[in-house]
Amino acid sequence: QVQLVESGGGLVQAGGSLRLSCEPSRPTFGIGTMGWFRQPPGKEREFVATISWNKSTTSYADSVKGRFTISRDNAKNTVSLQMNSLKPEDTAVYYCAAKIRDAALYKYWGQGTQVTVSS
After folding, report:
1. What is each CA distance from 19 to 9, 10, 58, 82, 114, in whole angstroms?
2. Would you say 83 and 116 are in contact if contact means Cβ atoms under 8 Å apart?
3. 117 phi and psi, to 5 degrees?
4. CA distance 28 to 51
5. Is-contact 65 84, C-beta < 8 A?
6. How far is CA 4 from CA 15, 63, 73, 93, 109, in A?
7. Residue 114: strand pairing partners
8. pLDDT tens digits along 42-68
9. Is 90 helix (H, G, I), strand (E, B) or coil?
């Protein structure tokens, strides 16, 4: 079973930046839309950003628009999330996910990486 592996989380002060990356545990074909989700402490998992397989379409949660940028490298099936102007409310476990081709649901998920923003 393919798993996604996130990296780049950590502790940062408010106003700082972090870059998250995600790659599959082994070569995988047919990856479609990829995305990032997060789960703040004591809350449900929520959508952060997605990017289509051909990079033509990106979507962001209102809370991160203008601060976060999602990108991908199709040659490596990796997806990244550049996070700037971080706020304490961005503190969460961040998960990457991937769909197979044009499937409706995400098939592959990562284990999550902790991002903590101090005030």
Report:
1. 8, 10, 17, 4, 12
2. no
3. -115, 120
4. 17
5. no
6. 28, 25, 14, 14, 6
7. 93
8. 999 999 999 999 888 999 999 999 999
9. helix
